[in-house]
Prior knowledge:
Strand content: 35-45%
Number of strands: 10
Distance between the termini: 14 Å
Order of helices and strands: EHEEHEEEEHEEHE
Low-confidence stretches: none
Number of domains: 2
Amino acid sequence: MVRYSNITLVNLLANAYHIDSARISGPAWIDETPYDIQAKLPAGTPKDQVPGMLKTLLTERFKLTVHKEMKEQKAYLLVVGKNGPKLKDGRPDGGQNQMLPGRLMGANMPMGMLAALLSRFAGYPVVDKTGLPGAYDIDLKFAKDNSDVAAALQEQLGLKLETGKAPVETLVIDRAEKVPIEN
Length: 183
């Protein structure tokens, strides 16, 4: 069973498309109107299939149509620090990513996913420019007010954030019904 309570369409889309909600554009109500969503998953459904199923649910219930666009924006570029990365190879069994006040954890996380999660703390999109192809176990600890994320990233993972501009993928809502269809 999947349950979302009091969640906006923009946050549902962020979960379904693995994109920062700030990179989703559409009518104002997508970030204002709360919904309760419940869906029954088939027994044994792998976690990695849930976002695709959520996309289907949103398409059917909200009559949703979207497209992706690349837009040049101010961004942070995630790059390898001058002394090289300090990363642990990811465990193949994986696990869930967790974002807690002052901590970001994940198992078997590719750099693109780390960049996407860092975007939530950084205030701007973070784009992976590390060139690191693998997946890594991440346990990044920083101040609860996020004031030292860049310093912690450099010290603990050997990565750094540089300011710049980059093409950033955005999700554009072409159509969505404000009142979803019931099951």
